[in-house]
Fold these 4 entries.
Entry 1:
Amino acid sequence: MWLSDAPNTAYFVGGAANSKLDHEAEDGRFLYSGWEAFGKTHQCTSEKLLNSQLFTAFQMNSSNHQDADAMKQLITAYTKAVEKTDTCKHGLSFGSLTHNR
């Protein structure tokens, strides 16, 4: 999700978390619990979108099973994959993506 005026992941999360985010990694870049995880990309900004920063999120609300280590692995791998996309590299909004296949 692109968000302007969001200095960090905690600001991005705001009140969106459904559980206590009692784990963090990389000095707060990633916040997570056994059910959900949030992250901030590196160098994914968009001048077209008012200098917005790109954030990532996963929320698993339908399971009684919790696994904070798995959520950490999921959010860090997903965020790093997002950083390699044209969306990140060119600051594109998700609605402007085109596929030429």
Entry 2:
Amino acid sequence: MTKRRKEVEEKLSTMRRDGRESVLVVADFDMTLTSFLMPDGSRGMSTHGMLERSGYFGEAFTTRAKDIFNRFYPIEVDPNLDWDSKFAAMSEWWETTHKLIVEQEVTKKDIAACVKAGHFRFREGVPELLAQLKEREVPILVFSAGIADVLEEIFKQRLGLEGLPIISNKMKFDEEGKLVGFENNTIHIMNKGAVALEGQNLELVKDKSNVILLGDSLGDLRMADGLPNKQQVLKIGFLNDKIEERKEEYLEKFDVVIVNDGPMTAVNELLAPIFA
């Protein structure tokens, strides 16, 4: 659904005119490339959830992680909370969770086991989208407030993909292969616009003027802030939860909104003329 059909059509027309060589896809991961709900109606795991809900690190860890989630998730989806208060809460949520995960001395072998047992699925149409982007040589930058090491393992195990450009929270391991912390500053759902692109990621995006942004939170709208040569951004949002309370705000902020944990196939159809 959209409140600005004419603007969407104009953006798509510009992308078709400029050609797919001008296009970059920037996508959130959790609950954007993946589904919010599983077929049985239960909530799918996020990348943090792969570790927190797996049971792999014992009951005490699982219980503590659940308590932290139950404290902060209502704040994340509260449409009435001001930006500064929500930003502070999300910062605290991520820092608290990462400290708890580090205490478990996680290894890469642990990550692989948690992903293998993970209760999650890619959103319908996502494998096809990724295949189409690869075939048409349109780059995708995965910009996640999750955990980069878990993301890499997910793409490897579930889709056989390695080397996708990912900006996320990267784990740091000691000589024995145990987690001792996270590299650089924490990325959470509210501060993606402050993350500086560098190295290969900057090289990937530097000549791209047309951006297709895929996200499920209002914080994801800032994922394109650091792109140096963007001229327009087509913003596509997935509204998975608290739909009636947040629908109007999403329709105001995103160009197109997919509700009720809808499939990526609708997005694929929308973008097909650009990639033809």
Entry 3:
Amino acid sequence: MLYERLNTALKPLDLTFTQYNVLRILRGAGAAGVTCSQLAERMIVRDPDVTRLLDRLEKRGYVERRRSEQDRRVLIVTISAAGLEHLHAADGPIVKAMTSTMEKPGKERLLELIDVLETIRQ
């Protein structure tokens, strides 16, 4: 349900939540970028075909790929200026969708959920 709301919020920007997640990860990585395998590990919703996902984002000018200087077999992925701009435009609708979704259960239930998740994590 949350995933559907996030995709709906991003639809006017012609972006899926998975694509948004990739751009967000790349923004966090900065100029150093990440490898394809590092990107796959950090994704919230796993996509078995990260290469095809990156192909679509690269075609739109949102990401750039280059060979690693240490190992020419490894591709480093970074976000482009256009990708940063598009991501910035998407941040507002995502925050709005998340806020409206999280308000429904109420603060007390969300705090209970956080406690349960922290217990599981330990």
Entry 4:
Amino acid sequence: MIAQLKDLQKRKDLQEKIYEIGRIINAPRSWLIVLYQPVNDGSPYVSIQGEELFYTSSERGCEISRKPISSLDELMYFIFEGATSMMALDYELDNRVEGQDFRRIYFSKQIELMSKLSPQWGERCRKEIEEILSSSPYSS
């Protein structure tokens, strides 16, 4: 996979595949751009270190997140997890229920979007959200 991501044409092919998948949920293309170097504004990018790949975020020169990438599917999961999070937040803002923990709508919508893209991604997203809720339950 590292060789694929070092090849410029394969990067273009991957980007087109991501845009194609994003059309399933009408994801804004600007939220699906794969970066390969830091922008230092918190935007995630793919970093190659030796024989390992990481989905990394850095802001003002400080690394704030680093997730190892074991497969192309996992890279796409990370990309769409971020895009669906933003889409779900937009949806929640437009459909907010006064007095209700905003995460009820937000998490539900994100799982719905991820499930449309891939049942496995939807299940993984649901499990990650359950983990969040186990330590930070809904307030209302």
